[in-house]
Every structure is written in structure tokens, then in C-alpha cells.
Amino acid sequence: MLFRNIGDFIIWITEWGAKLVFLNLLWLVFSLPIVTVFASTTATYAVMRQWIFQQNTGSSLFGIFLSYFKENWKQGTGLGIIFSIIGIIVYVDYIFVLTMDNPIFTTVFILIFYLFVVTLLLSFAVIVHYESSVFQSIRNAFVFAIAYPLCSFFLVISVLSLVMMFLMMPGLLPFFSISGIALLTNIIINPIFRKIGV
User: Fold this and answer.
1) Angle between helical axes of 61-71 and 37-52 (0-180°, round to 10)
2) What is the pTM of this model?
């Protein structure tokens, strides 16, 4: 995007900042029943993808979010159940690794945890981009993580940096946490989607 002057750039930054804040607040409100967190996150990713691809930008944010929330309720909840189970297994593995104090087990666990995080982040983007089933989305996200290791690594580093910033400035969490992560994920992986023509 080209800017004619610094004023246009400031307006653009302000508009995006306001959209991110509103989107994150919507995510918070729709996540208040804990069981809807993943459905709300899926809707957040869907809205962000729409913004990145500049589709239907004239509609109200609340209406778009609500539509995606209803549309992706089953898929988002399914993702939540599956990743919650996997997360528990990963945590049990972590406890096991701590008791073993073995560098090989530690290395294997780090790899497993890395793939878990990447697949989790990518699954939301994949499920709204392909409009596929839960298991297909998880499988595609895992394959994507393996097939594009540099992109996946950059995604993890970027999200980790964002999380570190939130830890240093926790006041930003209610306004930019999930919307910021969704923005980073879409910015990083959508060029790959465009490249492979999907």
C-alpha cells in the first residue's frame, strides 16, 4: 500500500488499530462462556482473513463476526476439543520429560511441542481458508508446518515476540492479544496460500 503523505499513513495505522481493538473485544465477549473460546477464535481468524483479502469491507464488524461465529461454531468447537486433548497429552509428556532428565527425550519433546503450537496456530487459518472439516484442517495445518518449515518457524518466532511484548505490557492483552496473533498468522501464511493458488 502506497501513502501520499505521513498523514495518510497515520490514518491507516489508526484505522487498523481501532479495528484490531474492536475485533479483540468481540473475541473476549464471545469467549465469556469458556466453551466458545475456540469458536470465537475461529471467527476472529475468519474476519482477519477477510480484511487481508479485502473482501466485503463495507459490512459492519459485529455483523461479520457474528456470522462467522455461527458459521464456524461446530468446526471451532471441534478444534477446541481435539487440541485440548492433545494439549493434555503434551503436558503429561512434559511432566515425564522433567522426571527423566534425558537430553534425547527433551529434544523430542521440544520438537513435539513446536509442531503442536504451529499446527494449532495454522489450523484456525486453514479451517477458514479451505472451509474444510476439523480433521482435514488439522492434517493440512500439520502438512503445511512440515512443508514450509521456514514460514512455520518465522510464525512461531513472531507470535512468541508478540507474547513477550504482552508480558511486558499486560495492559495491551484485552485489546490486541488474539486479534494481533490472527493478524500475524494471516500476514505470514496468506502469501503461501496465494502462491500455491488456494
Assistant:
1) 120
2) 0.88
Furthest-apart CA atoms within the chain: distance in Å: 60
H or E segment at 176?
A: helix 173-196
Packing angle, helices 149-168 and 134-147, rounded to 10:
100
* pLDDT band at residue 119 using 50, 70 and 90 as cut-offs: very high
DSSP label at residue 132: -
60: left (phi over 0), alpha (psi -120 to 50) or beta: beta
Report which DSSP code applies to 4: S
Residues 6 or more apart whose Cβ sits within 8 Å of residue 11? none
| Lookup result for grid cell 503450537 | 117
User: 10 Å Cβ neighbour count for 166?
Assistant: 16
How far is residue 74's CA from residue 80's CA, in Å, rounded to a whole number? 10
pLDDT per residue as tens digits for the range 128-145: 888 778 999 999 999 999
- What are the two backbone dihedrals, phi and then psi, of residue 5, each rounded to the nearest 5 degrees? -155, 175
